Amino acid sequence: MDNSPTSLFDSYEQDFKQFIIQIREKLEADHDNDTEQRKAALRRVEMNLEEADEMVSQMDIEIQGIPQSLRSQYQTRLREAKQELSRYKAMSKDLNSKLSRSSLLSSSSRPGSFPTSDDPYGGGPTSDRTRLLAGTALLEDGTKRLQESQRTALETEEQGADILMNLRMQREQIENSRNTLEIANSSVNRASNTLKGMIRRMYQQRVVTGAIIAILVLLIVIVVWGKLS
Questions:
Q1: Where is the composition biased (Low complexity) (predicted)?
Q2: CA-to-CA dists, residue 77 to 45, 65, 82, 88, 155, angstroms
């Protein structure tokens, strides 16, 4: 298992590229003007975009743990991934809008879909235009809600990244404090051993001094005894 600080980033990037390939294939596929197939393809594209967005979020989190010497090139790769994701999101949004307008126009041109000019309760072309405008307004409202959800998700992602970075910094501070305590403990042990050695030598010197004094006293006694005798 690769435990390098960039391994998870590389893994998420590979998953992101796989989702982008699937998205591109679905967006560029020709469904022969089959509206239902195009709708199904766009629904799958939306799911793939969500997965790709999640991969970008994970890459954004993992980049905080990459060493500074390597971080710049990974930041460039992350920025490119975000730009590519935004481009495909815009393509998907544009295709969804075109498909919705096409569906509204095709349904309005279908016989019996809307009241005709002979219908006393309908307005003919005016009624069709009103329905089309209402559908467009509904689509725009849904798009705004989607954009608001994406903005909230990005804000949550940024907050999560900040929290993770703070936790990493706190862990580094704790590790530095622990290393400092270990160094201090080692210094205290060395000082203690030095003091013990000094005390031991002091006692040895006292013993030697006492022995010398005893010998001198004994010699003095012997000399005095010899003179007196």
A1: 99-110
A2: 23, 15, 9, 17, 21
Distance CA 168, CA 204 (A): 54
Instruction: With residue 46 as reference, give the H or E element that holds it.
Output: helix 35-62
Q: How many CB atoms lie within 10 A of CB 188?
A: 10
**74 φ, ψ (degrees, to nearest 5):** -75, -30
Q: Is the pTM of this model over 0.90?
A: no
Sign for the CA dihedral angle at 64, 67, 68, 74 comes to negative
Residue 67 amino acid letter:
P
Quick check: 213 and 207 in contact, CB under 8 A? no
Residue 22 tokens, joined: 């699937």
Tell me how far apart the alpha carbons of residues 103 and 36 are, in angstroms, rounded to a whole number: 10
Give average pLDDT by consecutive 10-residue segment, the chain, 229 residues: 79 94 84 72 91 93 89 93 93 86 66 45 54 75 78 79 78 81 83 86 88 91 88
* Rounded Cα distance, 94 and 108, in Å: 21
Domains present along the chain, CATH in parentheses: 7-183 (1.20.58.400)
